[in-house]
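> example.struct
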């Protein structure tokens, strides 16, 4: 069908080859389609997604690229196709040839902004295409079962108040939150949770985190100590097209009274859009 090298992306006069671009469209069900220009060269073509990360088993998802309107080829990633949580690098392969990394084109992600999953299947699945720091196309995939979605954060002394909603299960009156020290997961601080149907509210007590500076990850235990521990994250709100919230959501630091020295506590989202609190000494 194609070599996936449109005329505008063929080698320049200096012999350098430009990277083919893929345009992405997200649908309200959570699926993605990828469009690449087709110059009409014979040969079967596939879009290949490879999961990134050392220590993970090699994983790939192969999607056939078929002719579409406007002289392009299209590959569909339906919401029903399981995509393990992680970062997937997007490639094209023609007639069994080498894999070619794709660059991001125009992305239409408007449907993600209004998408509110029901959680009726017991999980929440989110896929967001994005440009890497090297200018390549990748897809960030989340698969949370169940999922605790962070909402409004109230930054104040003596603690961080977190509001959110549970998907895939309903928190009980036994629910509690845990702040877990990443450097030593055996160190944790529990906080009570106020529950109203699927909504929850709790406050992280800064004073109890001051003894161990470092990064504290926030978890919700919707059924108490005997149930699952669910990482609190923000992946499905009105800004659901953001693959990395670190540079988008910034919160002021708080300097609560501590027994020894002066410390700052700051709420933040990690590179996986999980909610944490960093405690640092102030010199």
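> example.seq
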């Amino acid at each position: 069908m194609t070599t996936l090298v449109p005329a505008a992306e063929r080698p320049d006069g200096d012999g350098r080859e430009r990277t083919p671009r893929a345009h992405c469209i997200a649908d309200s069900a959570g699926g993605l389609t990828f469009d690449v220009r087709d110059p009409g060269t014979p040969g079967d073509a596939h879009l290949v997604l490879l999961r990134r990360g050392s220590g993970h088993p090699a994983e790939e998802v192969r999607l056939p690229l078929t002719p579409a309107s406007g002289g392009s080829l299209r590959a569909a990633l339906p919401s029903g196709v399981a995509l393990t949580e992680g970062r997937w690098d997007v490639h094209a392969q023609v007639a069994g040839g080498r894999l070619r990394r794709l660059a991001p084109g125009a992305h239409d992600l408007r449907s993600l902004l209004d998408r509110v999953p029901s959680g009726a299947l017991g999980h929440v699945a989110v896929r967001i295409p994005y440009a890497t720091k090297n200018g390549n196309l990748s897809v960030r995939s989340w698969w949370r079962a169940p999922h605790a979605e962070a909402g409004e954060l109230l930054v104040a002394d003596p603690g961080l108040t977190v509001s959110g909603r549970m998907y895939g299960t309903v928190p009980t009156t036994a629910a509690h939150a845990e702040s877990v020290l990443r450097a030593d997961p055996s160190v944790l601080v529990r906080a009570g949770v106020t529950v109203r149907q699927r909504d929850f509210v709790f406050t992280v007590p800064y004073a109890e985190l001051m003894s161990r500076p470092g990064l504290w990850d926030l978890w919700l235990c919707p059924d108490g100590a005997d149930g699952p521990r669910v990482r609190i994250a923000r992946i499905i709100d009105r800004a659901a097209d953001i693959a990395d919230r670190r540079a988008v959501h910034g919160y002021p630091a708080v300097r609560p009274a501590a027994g020894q020295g002066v410390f700052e506590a700051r709420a933040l989202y990690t590179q996986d859009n999980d909610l944490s609190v960093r405690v640092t000494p102030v010199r």
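> remarks
Residues 20 and 102 are 5 Å apart (CA to CA).
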